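The instructor's notes for this session suggest beginning with a concrete chain rather than abstract definitions. Hand out the sequence below and ask the class to guess, before any prediction is shown, which regions might be ordered.
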Amino acid sequence: MNALADIGKAVIEVGVRVAASTVGIGNRWRGGSGVVIGKNQVLTSAHNLHGDEPEVYFADGRQARAQVKGVDQDADLAVLEVDTADALPIAWGDSAGLQIGAPVIALANPSGGGRRLTLGFISSLDQAFRGPRGREMGQLIEHSAPLMPGSSGGPIVDAEGRVLGINTIRMGGGFYGAIAADTAFQERVERIGRGEVRSHRRIGIGIAPSFVARRLRRAVGLPARDGLLVRDVEDGSPAATVGIQEGDLIVDVGGRAIRDVDDMFEAIESAAEGSVSLTLVRGIEERTVEVTPTA
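After discussion, reveal the predicted structure:
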């Protein structure tokens, strides 16, 4: 019993130190969590933002409107500017030396619905995941600290209350994966806070993975092709302008065969300024269009 009491005491002490730095983002029905990282600066997940002035809920019951300082959709990170009053910035830990089995404490304030704190252990390291735009990201920490929906953007911390990662994606069963807060991550966050995120070229489509395209084509009796299936086209986008439609299969961009999402991102980013050729398969008909990406 003494061992359990000691563990409970340690978790409570961390909660007292760190919970005041953990905030809610959005509103009572839609949003997530965040953490104070500097004077008047809050870090959260980019997918928690709904509008340019999200509401931030503090542990003392105060709430305030924030301004979005910077967003990195690829990394699913955003930095907000808001009056943090007496909430102290959380300290960064060292995620580089983490090992499977190490204890972590997860904190959240889901959409401002009240503070949450749970204890868990690291179950896997260096896992890859895809951000909201579909780009593959590395350095995901899987852990067993259960959290309710709306906990993304909140931190996992060590026994000293230092940030080891930021929860970003629900893994199922009430568990989250966290982006490791290593040195590169911290530098990225600083750039986001300064508004220095590099813009990306886009053509305005939503896409489904290649395995979905193969399965759907097979289901309707069409020959299998490698490529990405267009699942929606944004009104007024470059893709819409040149006639790309939902259900088209993208098989080549700028002379590069497209087999997965990363192929397409790299092909569009590496293409020279101006238009880029894009080969589509619609049914059994193949056609090529010239599309001009926007930033």
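Then share the key points. The CA atoms of residues 31 and 48 lie 5 Å apart. Residues 2-193 form a domain with the Thrombin, subunit H fold (CATH 2.40.10.120).
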